[in-house]
Amino acid sequence: MKDATELPQSLLVLGGTSEIALATARRLIARRTRTVWLAGRPSPALENAAGNLRALGAVVHTVAFDALDPDSHETVLGKVFAEGPVDMVLLAFGILGDQAHDERDPARAVRVAQTNYTGAVSAGLVAGRALQAQGHGCLVVLSAAAAERARRADFIYGSSKAGLDAFAQGLGDALHGTGVRVMVVRPGFVRTRRTAGRPRAPLATTPEAVATAVELGLRRRAETVWVPGALRLLMSVLRHAPRAVYRRLAV
């Protein structure tokens, strides 16, 4: 993807069983992508995901990757980049956690933070350096609207995404002018298997809608993408709401 306005021919997904990531991969395969690496913990789900993408005509490889093992990231990602240029890296791993339980069990809360933030910092830096070494590419980071301001109902998850979001923006600034860019994607509530049973938030969206927004963002060379777009205005209002008011709204 030497012309960054083009869609990628090769894609590395960190978080290879993510429904949002797989919807994005399917959309990109339908447009231009021909080679995909799905990185995640070895599992039947990862292999099934690879098989489904192969059925769409892509060459798909699976890669053993653990967000909680940052010492392995340079080796794992290095092997992928050694196979040839990677036009786009999609950083899509993360866990929601369970706020009520995690508040009472700090070890569980730390796992959310280590996965969503610490693991992403490690993988993001390694991927960014590899993209810079090849002289082109895009790192797409799945953040969340929750990163804008922590809510009482999910402040552990929200704070981890806030850290990720700030990191990704800073990394994008650090890579500016190198031929590599970073695009931050901030979806609201996404209806997936992992959110099933949770109260539905306003402006809920789908993995397919996020995938569509990612494609449009790539074409427009966007730095930040909101899904749906109306969330940008809503979160701007909520971000500046007095804390006493926000506390009552954001339960």
Would you give an account of this structure?
The chain is an alpha/beta fold and 251 residues long. It is 48% helix and 16% strand. The protein has nine helices and seven strands, in the order E-H-E-H-E-H-E-H-H-E-H-E-H-E-H-H. The chain has a seven-stranded parallel sheet with strand order 3-2-1-4-5-6-7, sandwiched between helices. Helix 6 links the parallel strand 5 (137-142) and strand 6. The longest helix is centred in the middle third of the chain and has 29 residues, at 106-134. The model has no long low-confidence stretch (mean pLDDT 92).
Task: Put the structure in a nutshell.
The protein is α/β, with parallel strands linked by helices and 251 residues long. It contains nine helices and seven strands, in the order βαβαβαβααβαβαβαα. GO terms for molecular function: oxidoreductase activity.
Strand residues, percent:
15-25%
**Poorly predicted runs of 5 or more residues:** none
Largest sheet: number of strands, sense, barrel closure: 7 strands, parallel
Order of strands, widest sheet: 3-2-1-4-5-6-7
Radius of gyration: 17 Å
Q: What is the terminal separation in angstroms? A: 43 Å
Mean pLDDT: 92
What is the overall number of helices? 9
Got a strand count? 7
Tell me the series of helices and strands, N- to C-terminal.
Answer: EHEHEHEHHEHEHEHH
| Shape label | globular
Helix content: 40-55%
Instruction: Kindly name the structural category.
Output: alpha/beta
InterPro entries: NAD(P)-bd_dom_sf (IPR036291), Sc_DH/Rdtase_CS (IPR020904), SDR_fam (IPR002347)
EC number: 1.1.1.333
Keywords: Oxidoreductase
Protein name: Decaprenylphospho-beta-D-erythro-pentofuranosid-2-ulose 2-reductase
